[in-house]
Specification:
This protein has 161 residues and is of the alpha+beta class. It has four helices and nine strands, in the order E-E-H-H-E-E-H-H-E-E-E-E-E. The strands form three sheets. It has a four-stranded antiparallel beta sheet with strand order 6-5-7-8, covered by helices on one side. A hairpin with a 2-residue loop joins strand 3 and strand 4 (48-57). The structure holds ligand 291 and calcium ion.
């Protein structure tokens, strides 16, 4: 971070704003409307923010929606993150939501968008079962459990920032 002085001689520290979290920073800058929007349709857990788009899309389009907003689809990496996301899915009341992970690369081996293997999972009993041989995406049910599901299905879009 490099320093700079303001009009009253005050010192300002500059640091790069993480490009993946523009919405989060916008929230802190903007009016109460933004905070209310996040209160109703978002969840903050640790350093992470989940925000729902409140509409349903197939996986690829959902990915694009989140990338456009500077985020990505949700990757719950522990029980606390999973629970925060579950509360959002349940409150939104639009059914299951897509997670970020797929096993499109290697069947049965689910990975994050960067290709790393899962560090946490919350599969529903019997999942993932690749039912019909075409379930390469993951949905979170309203109870927080995970199920592998075809990527072409439309699910609630939630992004992580
Ligand atoms: C069953 C389980 C899941 C599977 C799902 C789909 C349903 O859950 O076998 O592992 O992903 O069926 O095959 O597909 C359609 N078209 O309904 C059903 C429950 C909630
Ligand atoms: Ca399944």
């Amino acid at each position: 971070p490099k320093g700079d002085s303001g009009p009253r001689g005050e010192q300002w520290a500059w640091t790069a704003m993480p490009a993946t979290r523009p919405c989060f920073y916008a929230q802190t800058e903007k009016s109460k409307g933004w905070k209310m929007e996040l209160f109703l349709h978002g969840q903050s857990v640790g350093q992470k923010v989940f925000k729902t788009a409140s509409f349903l899309k197939p996986f690829q389009e959902a990915q694009q929606v989140c990338a456009q907003a500077g985020g990505q689809l949700p990757s719950p990496r522990n029980a606390a993150e999973n629970e925060a996301l579950q509360q959002l899915v349940e409150f939104e009341n639009k059914g299951a939501a897509f997670l970020s992970m797929t096993d499109s690369q290697t069947e049965g081996r689910f990975t994050y968008p960067g290709g790393e293997p899962l560090v946490y999972s919350n599969w529903n009993p019997g999942e993932p079962n690749n039912s019909g041989g075409n379930e390469h995406c993951v949905e979170m049910y309203t109870n927080g459990k995970w199920n592998d599901r075809p990527c072409g299905e439309k699910r609630l879009v939630i992004c992580e920032f």
